[in-house]
């Protein structure tokens, strides 16, 4: 009976993960429960990540396959971090979640059965008001083909300068950076002119390659709820069906 209940809990938690945009009312702590109860303990005791795809105890993150879409994964901290508004993500010793999420892109490649180009892969985090879960998570998935094309003119823009962009009929700004570490951490880049938690809570961030490879860096794409025609979620710029993989 105990084994049955345990398996039922695992299944229920896994189901709750799917549809991050629609299950807040069900259990806004589902991701944290999965990571803290079903991934970290087995990694600590057996060296296996449980229901997660990967758990990195040293770097303090887990990778979990979302049941929405065939190729979508989530990076989730193994620390309790609520989301983009948390001051913890801006601390000097904060993990490089964006770097770790980018390095996990091979899971998307494996599911898509192709090697995605850097500008075909996107990382995204929603604002506090456009997410279902009270645990920070970065979406890792394919980009929409039309958004890849729309961002192409920004691949050779001057580093460290914001440029306006209209994507999916909403207002964004785009900055090219040479890496995702230190002061180029996308959280820190956006927080420079949104310095407090209340302002950060309205932000959404997407990161993708500035070209087919990352020799020219990455693009940080940012919008917010508090601007006209702004967006609190850049997730629609991703393609959870990964049509570009089907098109070769």
TrEMBL record:
Pathway: Phospholipid metabolism; CDP-diacylglycerol degradation; phosphatidate from CDP-diacylglycerol: step 1/1; Lipid metabolism. Residues 1-24 form the signal peptide. The keyword Signal applies. The keyword Lipid metabolism applies. This is CDP-diacylglycerol pyrophosphatase. InterPro entries: CDP-diacylglyc_Pase, HIT-like_sf. Its EC number is 3.6.1.26. Keywords: Cell membrane, Hydrolase, Lipid biosynthesis, Lipid metabolism, Membrane, Phospholipid biosynthesis, Phospholipid metabolism, Signal, Transmembrane, Transmembrane helix.
């Amino acid at each position: 009976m105990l084994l049955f209940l345990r398996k039922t809990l695992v299944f229920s938690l896994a189901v709750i993960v799917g549809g991050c945009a629609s299950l807040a009312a069900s259990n806004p702590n589902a991701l944290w429960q999965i990571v803290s109860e079903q991934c970290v303990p087995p990694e600590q005791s057996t060296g296996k990540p449980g229901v997660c795809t990967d758990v990195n105890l040293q770097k303090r993150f887990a990778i979990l396959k979302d049941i929405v879409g065939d190729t979508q994964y989530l990076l989730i901290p193994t620390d309790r971090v609520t989301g983009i508004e948390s001051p913890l993500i801006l601390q000097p010793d904060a993990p490089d979640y964006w770097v770790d999420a980018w390095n996990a892109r091979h899971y998307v490649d494996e599911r898509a059965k192709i090697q995605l180009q850097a500008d075909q892969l996107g990382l995204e985090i929603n604002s506090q008001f456009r997410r279902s879960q009270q645990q920070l998570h970065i979406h890792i998935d394919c980009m929409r083909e039309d958004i890849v094309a729309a961002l192409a003119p920004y691949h050779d823009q001057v580093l460290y300068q914001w440029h306006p962009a209209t994507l999916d009929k909403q207002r964004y700004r785009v900055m090219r950076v040479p890496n995702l570490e230190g002061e180029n951490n996308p959280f820190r880049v956006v927080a420079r002119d949104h310095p407090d938690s209340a302002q950060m809570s309205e932000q959404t961030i997407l990161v993708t390659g500035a070209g087919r490879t990352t020799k020219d860096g990455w693009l940080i794409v940012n919008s917010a709820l508090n601007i006209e025609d702004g967006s609190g979620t850049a997730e629609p710029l991703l393609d959870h069906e990964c049509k570009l993989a089907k098109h070769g």
